[in-house]
Specification:
The chain is of the alpha/beta class. It has a single domain, classed as Class I glutamine amidotransferase (GATase) domain (Rossmann fold), CATH 3.40.50. The protein is built from six helices and 13 strands. A hairpin with a 4-residue loop joins strand 12 and strand 13. The two termini are about 25 Å apart. About 40% of the residues are buried. The mean pLDDT is about 95.
Amino acid sequence: MTRVALTMRVTAADGYSESRDSISHDWTARLAEWEMTPLPVPNLGERMVAYLVDLRPDILVLTGGDDIGATPLRDATENALLDHAVAVGLPVFGVCRGLQVINVRRGGRLVAVDGHVGKPHTVTVAPLWRGLYGASVTVNSYHGQGVAKDGIGDGLVVTATDDYGRVEALCHREKALAAVMWHPERRGGLAGDRVLLAGLAAGRIPWR
């Protein structure tokens, strides 16, 4: 089965003065549906690179939740994992926050986005990804930060936009690196999400 390394949120437990790492059941259920094995990665900073190596995943997924800057330990963990994955050629798929992490790590910028939390909307898909999603598709949406077209990071290509031209998906043309602002694991996930994730994990770059 495809082995999927999943980054996790930092959450607070009711009644306890401690932080915890957590992953939504949506992710574990979706990956089980797709016959993939979830491998959660704790937020412990750079030391998690060695942990990732030991896991031997087929792909790294940078999941959603937590604004960049709100959870410094998660920021440090995901930045280290992303840098390692790109350096060794491990495929990476970013979701919502994951797209933002990839973009910022490559020198891009974020902007505030209104009206995108819990409100499905239509996105326009660039020709590069129309074989995966068609020319337009309705997606779920749970983000308050996003990426304007002029804020795209080095080497990244915009593959979907909303009605205001803001980035809804991106990829690296030559590397196994892709991300979407919608949530494949939640209700409203798309058939193309599975094709994209499975293709990357199998060592293919689906948009070539």
